[in-house]
Amino acid sequence: MKIEMQDPARGPHADASLMPAWGRETCGIDTMEPPLLHFALVDAHWDPETAALCYEKKLTCYARFGIAAASVPIAENIGDGLLHLVTATDPASGEIVGGVSIYRRGPSCRLPVELALGGEESMASEIATWRGRNVVELSGLWTEDAWRKTGLSEQLMLVAFAATHVLKAEMIIGFGHHHVLDFYATVGLAPDLSFGQFVYPNARYVATVVRGDPVRFSTLPPRHRQTVATFAHALSHRQTVTWAAARRRSQPGP
């Protein structure tokens, strides 16, 4: 099932009047310019075609930076609710231009962080506490070159954070390399140094475990908490979440 974040009977922003002005602006409501991107929440079990397309696009994106090996393959016959994707679609072209994956831990489905760091002694006792809990991981963020440095990566992560709340996750866990930890902190994934740091996947990278609070949003910077709450409200009511970039690059670049 692909959840288009929209209430078809009442229009895409049926409860817009309940949102504060900043929320309407963030979601592309009451703005002079039409929204540039639409965000959707997809269950990979029910929409494997979209999941496969996003995986190929992610591989292409990661290959440009020599990190294709860091992409987690999509398991065959993945269970219902074990993998969701937040996608960003350009309505002008109909093309998906960015995405991020939400992995949920299951009895036979380990999270990417477990696959990468589960053999580390400091992680073993932590992983044992996840049994029976709704623990998720945000992973596999990617955007098309034309949308780099527009703020899309941040918006994707904030919408994904809101999605974990809607999916009733108890905790977000994950890991990040040293060069992205500052960015992760801005989207609610706080480093947890109590586990130490790990050389992964090779000596060029130092990985640190990160955590997020999808229940109370305590790990989010205060400036983003209301924004994520607005996104969660839209997702739970199947309203369209839209976003207009502050600026777009005309040429690909770092």
Radius of gyration: 18 Å
Number of strands: 10
The shape, in one word, is: globular
Strand content: 15-25%
What is the averaged pLDDT score?
82
SSE class: alpha+beta
Tell me the count of domains: 1
Number of helices: 7
Relevant CATH superfamily: Gcn5-related N-acetyltransferase (GNAT)
CATH fold descriptor:
Aminopeptidase
Describe this structure in words.
This protein is α+β, with helices and mostly antiparallel strands. The protein is 29% helix and 23% strand. It contains 7 helices and 10 strands. It has helices spanning 21-26, 48-64, 112-117, 121-128, 152-166, 181-186, 222-236; strands at 2-4, 37-43, 83-90, 95-104, 135-143, 171-177, 190-191, 197-199, 206-212, 241-243. Strands 1, 2, 3, 4, 5, 6, 7, 8, 9 and 10 form a 10-stranded mixed beta sheet that branches. β5, α5 and β6 form a beta-alpha-beta unit. The longest helix is centred in the N-terminal third of the chain and has 17 residues, at 48-64. It is globular and about 50 Å long.
In short:
This protein is α+β, with helices and mostly antiparallel strands. The protein has helices at residues 21-26, 48-64, 112-117, 121-128, 152-166, 181-186, 222-236, and strands at residues 2-4, 37-43, 83-90, 95-104, 135-143, 171-177, 190-191, 197-199, 206-212, 241-243. Strand 3 and strand 4 (95-104) form a beta hairpin.
